[in-house]
């Protein structure tokens, strides 16, 4: 069984920013996603990302929304990968970094480069599980590639040739205008060509200094194992308020029955993964004294806080309130210890 394709929530930031800046209407689904996906490092199933692109396109009535958002974005706007790419001094190094590391941050895409004569081709293809929002996500990615190359080649630069998935859309003329020579539709992947001579072009320095950004290697990455990625997917579905086995099956690109069978082979079940995700999320939320137990209960999908209390006691042996008192007291003790003179900071456990 292939791993569940996952991507960081940061890829949605340009979409949400575009909608907000232009005063475009959000429906309840988009508003909920924006409120739940506050952590840009959170790993989200690729199918969820595609669904949100589809919803945004339908809500705004902009069929070319992917192109518009991509043209208004910068490579560094998509988070750690963009910042990693923009650390490079030349266009060739930046493209090489994007191709080599892109799948680490989005396990639902494949990136590769080829050479034909004096032209270099950059290829991009999403996993087959991405059906909803596939065109919008692909065209958004295409524009990010183009905007990256324009950093070195100039704002008016255009690819020599373009290859695009799918039939010609209503805005085919806008797509054709992106290429200097030709655009081909109904291709197996998205691809663009440019002269090899551009690879040596210098890139402007990223401001602020990218060395001040967190190291991407220290941040969570999609698991490339089926079991690990299934855990991450279920935790993400819980985060966005959709902890259902049907959603998990869509994320894995399979049927509910097939997903259950593969989980059983790994001595797991969807319910066990959901309970594990709820336990982890509940303990994290309870560390925030501003969040009420009844609010946490609702966010974790419990219609009755008494059911949440019973479940939490089963997981930890403590009630939510007793756990909170224990954790807050222990954290306070550590904070006081940090303030005592003569206590080495390395001996004191620090908690977020």
Helix content: 40-55%
Report the span from N to C terminus: 36 Å
**Which residue ranges are poorly predicted, with pLDDT under 50 across at least 5 consecutive positions?**
332-352
Which strand order spans the largest sheet, edge to edge or round the barrel?
A: 3-4-7-5-6
Report the radius of gyration as a whole number of Å. Answer: 23 Å
Largest β-sheet summary: 5 strands, mixed
Shape: elongated
User: Taking all residues together, what is the mean pLDDT?
Assistant: 89
- How many alpha or pi helices? 15
Supply the helix-strand structural class. alpha+beta
Strand content is 5-15%
Number of beta-strand segments: 7
Task: Output the helix-strand order.
Answer: EHHEHHHHEEHEHEEHHHHHHH
Provide an overview of this structure.
This protein is of the alpha+beta class. Among the domains are: 63-218, no CATH class; 269-352, Arc Repressor Mutant, subunit A (Orthogonal Bundle). Helix content is 50%, strand content 10%. It has 15 helices and seven strands. The protein has helices spanning 13-21, 28-36, 46-60, 65-71, 80-86, 91-105, 134-153, 172-176, 226-239, 245-252, 256-265, 270-286, 293-299, 305-316, 320-339; strands at residues 6-8, 43-45, 109-116, 119-126, 161-163, 182-184, 190-195. The protein has a five-stranded mixed beta sheet, covered by helices on one side. A two-stranded antiparallel ribbon has the order 1-2. Strand 5, helix 8 and strand 6 (182-184) form a beta-alpha-beta unit. It is elongated. 34% of the residues are buried. Mean pLDDT is 89; it is low at 332-352.
Characteristic key phrases:
Arc Repressor Mutant, subunit A, alpha+beta, 352 residues, 15 helices, two-stranded antiparallel ribbon, 50% helix, five-stranded mixed sheet
């Amino acid at each position: 069984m292939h791993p569940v394709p996952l991507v960081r929530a940061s890829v949605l930031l340009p979409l949400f920013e575009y909608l907000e800046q232009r005063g475009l209407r959000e429906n309840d689904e988009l508003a909920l996603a924006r409120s739940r996906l506050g952590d840009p490092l959170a790993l989200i199933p690729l199918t969820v990302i595609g669904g949100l692109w589809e919803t945004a396109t339908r809500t705004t009535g902009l069929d070319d929304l992917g192109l518009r958002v991509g043209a208004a974005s910068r490579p560094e706007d998509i988070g750690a990968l963009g910042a990693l790419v923009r650390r490079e001094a030349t266009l060739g190094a930046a493209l090489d970094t994007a191709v080599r590391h892109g799948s680490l941050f989005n396990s639902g895409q494949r990136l590769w480069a080829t050479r034909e004569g004096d032209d270099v081709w950059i290829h991009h293809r999403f996993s087959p599980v991405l059906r909803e929002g596939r065109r919008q996500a692909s065209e958004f990615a295409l524009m990010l590639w183009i905007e990256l190359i324009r950093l070195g080649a100039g704002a008016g630069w255009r690819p020599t040739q373009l290859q695009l998935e799918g039939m010609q859309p209503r805005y085919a003329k806008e797509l054709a205008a992106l290429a200097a020579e030709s655009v081909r539709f109904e291709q197996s992947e998205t691809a663009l060509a440019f002269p090899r001579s551009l690879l040596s072009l210098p890139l402007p320095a990223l401001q602020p200094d990218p060395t001040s950004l967190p190291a991407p290697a220290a941040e969570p990455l999609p698991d490339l194992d089926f079991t690990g990625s299934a855990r991450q997917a279920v935790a993400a579905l819980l985060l966005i308020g959709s902890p259902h086995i049907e959603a998990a099956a869509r994320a894995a690109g399979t049927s509910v029955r097939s997903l259950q069978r593969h989980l059983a082979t790994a001595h797991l079940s969807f319910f066990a993964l959901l309970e594990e995700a709820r336990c982890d999320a509940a303990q994290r939320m309870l560390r925030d004294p501003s969040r009420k137990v009844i609010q946490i209960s609702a966010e974790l999908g419990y219609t009755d806080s008494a059911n949440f209390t019973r479940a939490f006691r089963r997981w930890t042996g403590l009630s939510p309130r007793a756990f909170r008192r224990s954790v807050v007291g222990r954290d306070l003790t550590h904070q006081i210890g940090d303030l005592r003179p003569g206590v080495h900071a390395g001996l004191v456990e620090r908690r977020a």
